[in-house]
């Protein structure tokens, strides 16, 4: 399992149901570490503040808990991605349609990629 820097992770995730062990947060899948790194990079570039991120992530977690999810942390990184998507939309950096179009492009690229080869957007048969 991959681990983020302990001080950074504590600052970003205090009080959240992030999957962790005695040494701190852990990632079960590579995409989780990539999503984590993306938020850190965007925050470091000033795209949003730590407070904005905490508010966005907290809202997603509260919504998931109210709907019966995110109680054991197993869907934490799904909430993480939802929070990032909604925060970027709220800041006018993307739109729901833009996110949906990109997700569809990735799905087409995955379908068009031979087994065992890396999935890249260039494999989307509709890519220009």
TrEMBL record:
Gene3D superfamilies: Nitrile hydratase, beta subunit (1.10.472.20). Transmembrane segments: none annotated. It comes from the Bacteria. Residues 17-109 form the Nitrile hydratase beta subunit-like N-terminal domain. InterPro entries: CN_hydtase_beta-like_N (IPR049054), CN_hydtase_beta_C (IPR042262), Elect_transpt_acc-like_dom_sf (IPR008990), Nitrile_Hydratase_acc_put (IPR023808). SUPFAM superfamilies: Electron transport accessory proteins. Pfam families: NHase_beta_N. This is Nitrile hydratase accessory protein. It comes from Bosea lathyri. The lineage of its organism: Bacteria, Pseudomonadati, Pseudomonadota, Alphaproteobacteria, Hyphomicrobiales.
């Amino acid at each position: 399992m991959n681990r983020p820097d302990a001080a950074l992770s504590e600052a970003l995730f205090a009080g959240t149901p992030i999957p962790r062990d005695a040494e701190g947060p852990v990632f079960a899948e590579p995409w989780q570490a990539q999503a984590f790194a993306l938020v850190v990079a965007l925050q470091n570039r000033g795209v949003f503040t730590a407070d904005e991120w905490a508010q966005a992530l907290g809202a997603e977690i509260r919504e998931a808990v109210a709907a019966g999810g995110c109680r054991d942390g197993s869907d934490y990184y799904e909430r993480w991605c939802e929070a990032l998507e909604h925060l970027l939309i709220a800041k006018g950096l993307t739109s729901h349609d833009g996110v949906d179009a990109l997700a569809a492009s990735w799905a087409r690229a995955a379908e068009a990629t031979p087994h065992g080869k890396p999935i890249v957007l260039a494999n989307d048969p509709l890519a220009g």
